[in-house]
Amino acid sequence: MKNKHFFIIGGGDLQADLVIxxxxxxITHVFDYNESCSCKNLADYxxxxxxxxxxxxxxxxxxxxIAGIATAATELGNLTACYIGExxxxxxxxxxxxxxxxxxxxMKKVFKKNNINHAKYFILKDEKDLEQxxxxxxxxxxxxxxxxxxxxxxxxxxxxxKRFYEAKDLSYxxxxxxxxxxxxxxxxxxxxxxxxxxQIVAITEEYLREGEFAxxxxxxxxLIPARVTNCEKKFIENEIMHILDAFKVKFGASxxx
Length: 257
Prior knowledge:
The chain is α/β, with parallel strands linked by helices and 257 residues long.
């Protein structure tokens, strides 16, 4: 008989498989502010609480003496899961790790501190910060959003202010990044980590469209395994291990581009 409780942060379609899997061994609790979310009736318990309300969910986690907590396909949910997991020693990554891998402005600081190569960038908080940008094209993106929200390639000064405010409106922390456009091949690397030990699962060669908006320059196709020399493969593997350690990733899957 199941007698241990498990929290799932987020109740949308992308969390459904996680709920179904967890139900095999646990009493499941789903958290989502949307009372009509698709996982409401999948879980044993549903809580109409925002996934960003860390303290309220933490109190319930203590009340139910949960055995674990997880989320899927939501960076905001991962912040809450790691915050609670760290507080209750549930084998998650730290809250610091979740913040640094979610907020691109913090991510850049980790890159710099650990001598990890990265695109040149500007932090944009106010309109006056746009004066730093003199070369185009440039990528504008909200600091703490995912899935390409607000990401756009700007080709001239005339559109810069408009795209800055659009990205700022989407950002939770109201910080926008302007990044140089890098040319060359793009690869993604899938990894699995457990207790700070990392395993590379696959190196993927990616093909991109060219355009202005995020949807215009997303991947069109993938090639696995990537066509790389042994020297290139070793270089990629070393960089990936360095990145995972720099961000103090201890558990779970990572997708690094």
